[in-house]
Amino acid sequence: MRTANLPQTSDREAPGTPHLAYFGGEPAFAVPRHVGAPNLGDRAVLMRRIEGLLDRRWLTNRGPLVEEFEQRLAERVGVRHVVVTCNATTALEIAVRALDLRGEVIVPSFTFVATAHALQWQRITPVFCDIEPGGYTLDPERVEALITPRTTGIIGVHLFGRTARVAELQRVADRRGLQLLFDAAHAFGCTRDGRSVGGFGRCEIFSFHATKFLNAFEGGAVATDDDDLAERVRLMQNFGFAGEDRVIHVGVNGKMTEVSAAMGLTSLEAEAGIVAVNRIHYDAYRRELRGVPGLSLMRYDERERNNYQYVVVEVDRDEAGLSRDQLVALLRAENVLARRYFHPGCHRMEPYRSLFPHAGLLLPRTEHVTDRVLALPTGGGVEPADVARIGGLMRGMVAHAAEIRDRWPHAVRRGEVT
Ligand SMILES: *Cc1c(COP(=O)(O)O)cnc(C)c1O
């Protein structure tokens, strides 16, 4: 872990606009800094596992590494069952089908588009619900208002690892006879009221995509305490096979390979180190951006366990003097590849945009937030000195906002500005 060279926030002088890469200066970073650069565990351990699976010639179809990964995940999360899959989108699709959802399912629009696609792909209508005031997750009151006779379920999302209001959502689901599940793609290792994510609702879905907190190159999982549901998910994930040539259910191929499980296990063993690095970067960003007008860093609830995987900033255009999109363009020119997570909201993407052209009328908080958020590079692909540098750049940009706006038409490099 790199704590020794923790940079000070003392280099608080703001570089003037002449040096900004957007206006022709040298980029601050020669090599791009990415959001979601993969967190890697112990390479030697990974290689040993890969040698082992090659020696066994057991590459997929529920090999020993998949079995071990599922067992270790279930222990870590504290649930009876974890079924690992090829990715989280497939896990969501299988879970939705295993719970026999149909008709309409209520989901946030402020999420990665896979949450909605997992429904639409199965001809189930995603009904987009607004987020709670001052938060990034489903507003239980708005959920209740959207329930119709066709509604069969609710999918909450623990966006950026900050958990949805699970108890209130569970009460709505129980009162109205709906299934509740969670897209926990961002929330492995997080708690709500001290309870691990993974055990809420009927089931929860994790992602082990390369960009996520833990990775299996690609991968996902369904976590549940429900024995019957776990059995259905297991069958559906493997063509409905209950034995060598006995098929008892319709199914798909959602299996995780052994090499993915090798990476997943190695990643799981590295969890504490990954959180520690994320935490150091998060705290550094907090120091760097403290007091900068118009920039507010997303906070985590310090009473809970968090994975600190996302460093999210909301940009208030009036106070900062620059829009979120301008700031992103300026940063990208410096090779700081900030991302507009999750712009523009699912309801403003196809096919939902054409299917529900007026959805935005019921999503004012979602539209407000999706036009203001950006995510900054963190994790193992970033050094503490990089965070200090990025913080310094952002302070400089805001300090010189008026000058930058004047020079905007003379930009040399153009980012994705709207
Ligand atoms: C990444 C992500 C998914 C999809 O995960 P994959 O493993 O890439 O299929 C689903 N929901 C959310 C919120 C995500 O961020």
Kindly list the characteristics that best describe this protein.
2 domains; 418 residues; 7-stranded mixed sheet; 3-stranded antiparallel sheet; alpha/beta; single chain; Aspartate Aminotransferase, domain 1; Aspartate Aminotransferase, domain 2; 15 helices; binds pyridoxal-5'-phosphate
Strand order of the largest sheet: 2-10-9-6-5-3-4
Rg, please?
22 Å
**At the fourth CATH level, what is the homologous superfamily of the largest domain?**
Type I PLP-dependent aspartate aminotransferase-like (Major domain)
Tell me the helix content. 25-40%
β-strand amount: 5-15%
* Total count of strands: 14
Q: In DSSP terms, counting alpha (H) and pi (I) runs of 4 or more, how many helices?
A: 15
Description:
The protein is α/β, with parallel strands linked by helices. It folds into two domains: 17-31 and 271-413, Aspartate Aminotransferase, domain 1; 43-269, Type I PLP-dependent aspartate aminotransferase-like (Major domain) (Aspartate Aminotransferase, domain 2), CATH 3.40.640. It is built from 15 helices and 14 strands. The protein has helices spanning 43-56, 64-77, 88-98, 114-120, 140-146, 166-176, 227-237, 258-269, 271-289, 317-320, 324-333, 352-355, 364-370, 384-399, 401-407, and strands spanning 33-34, 81-85, 104-108, 125-129, 151-157, 179-183, 191-192, 195-196, 203-207, 220-224, 295-297, 311-315, 336-337, 373-376. Strands 2-10-9-6-5-3-4 form a seven-stranded mixed β-sheet, sandwiched between helices. A three-stranded antiparallel β-sheet has the order 11-12-14. The chain has a two-stranded parallel sheet with strand order 1-13. Helix 1 packs antiparallel against helix 8, helix 2 (64-77) runs parallel beside helix 8 and helix 3 (88-98) packs across helix 7 (227-237). It starts with 32 loop residues before the first strand and ends in an 11-residue tail after the last helix. The structure holds pyridoxal-5'-phosphate (PLP). Pyridoxal-5'-phosphate binds at residues 87-89, 111-112, 114-115, 157, 183, 185-186, 207, 209, 220.
